[in-house]
UniProtKB/TrEMBL annotation:
Subcellular location: Nucleus
Database matches in SUPFAM superfamilies: HRDC-like
Species, as recorded: Cylicostephanus goldi
Domain called RNA polymerase Rpb4/RPC9 core: residue spans: 1-119
Molecular functions per Gene Ontology: nucleotide binding
Pfam families reported in the protein's UniProt record: RNA_pol_Rpb4
SMART domains: RPOL4c
GO cellular component: RNA polymerase III complex
Keyword Lipid biosynthesis: no
Protein name: DNA-directed RNA polymerase III subunit RPC9
Length: 119
């Protein structure tokens, strides 16, 4: 197999879900004899078993764009921003644990600064 049109980019889970859903619709339009069983299985597994259990299910381009603008001042890498989009908290418990973790990280940073400035 040869790659004819190479394009490197990161995709959010939302974008992958959208592409997979489009592929699934195209496969569903085909006659049963023309469908690829392996592709149908992969499309089912990706959509039903994984991506529909992630925040991608409720996301849309506007929400993603808003998040990208909100984190821009932090100068995150594209991969870090992608992680935030794909793994954002979706329940109150996840938000609470994120807040606790952020507080602990801040306290640790303060202790490191104090220790290094005391030298």
């Amino acid at each position: 197999m040869e790659v004819l049109n190479k394009q490197l980019t990161l995709l959010t889970n939302y974008e992958v879900l959208r592409l997979v859903n489009e592929s699934k619709k195209q496969e569903d339009k085909k006659a049963k004899n023309d469908r690829s069983k392996h592709l149908s299985t992969i499309l089912y597994e990706v959509t039903s078993k994984y991506l529909k259990t992630t925040p991608a299910q409720e996301q849309n381009p506007e929400v993603i764009e808003k998040l990208i603008k909100a984190v821009a001042p932090y100068k995150l890498t594209a991969a870090e921003t992608m992680q935030l989009i794909n793994l954002r908290p979706t329940t109150a418990a996840e938000v609470q644990s994120s807040a606790i973790l952020n507080r602990r990280i801040f306290q640790l940073e303060q202790r490191v600064r104090t220790a290094t400035s005391a030298r």
